[in-house]
Amino acid sequence: MQDDHRATTTLWRPTGPRELDLVRDLGWRAWPPRLPEQPIFYPVLNEDYAIRIARDWNVKHDGAGFVTRFEVDTDFLARYPVQQAGGRTILELWVPAEELGEFNAHIVGKIELVHEFH
Predict the structure, then answer these.
(1) Residues 6+ apart with CB under 8 A from 81
(2) What is the dihedral sign for C-alpha 82, 87, 89, 94?
(3) Smallest Cα–Cα separation from 102: which of 64, 72, 63?
(4) Per-residue pLDDT tens over the stretch 2-19
(5) Residue 103's Cα: distance from chain center in Å?
(6) I need a labelling partner for 14 at 20 to 30 A (CA). Which of 5, 49, 53, 63 fits?
């Protein structure tokens, strides 16, 4: 996807209801700061993996799970190597909590809610 002539990469983020409320409060344009026990923000690289986390983990722990989709400037993302967290399709980016503000500044457009599970 292109916006303002910048190449973007689509990322997904499985989330629970509390984080989703904070994203909504931020106008669907940014991720909230990490809590002290959350040193890494990890968006994922495929929708299926995000669905599995939201459906199988967030619902069990939070009563609901959501999948969001958003675009980030591809050139900026080059600083974060893809992490394989399991099988071949279990791919994440690991963004240190202290870099989340800069990461948010490179989101292109709005964060979209694309799936919800209860």
Answers:
(1) none
(2) negative
(3) 72
(4) 445 779 999 999 999 999
(5) 11
(6) 5
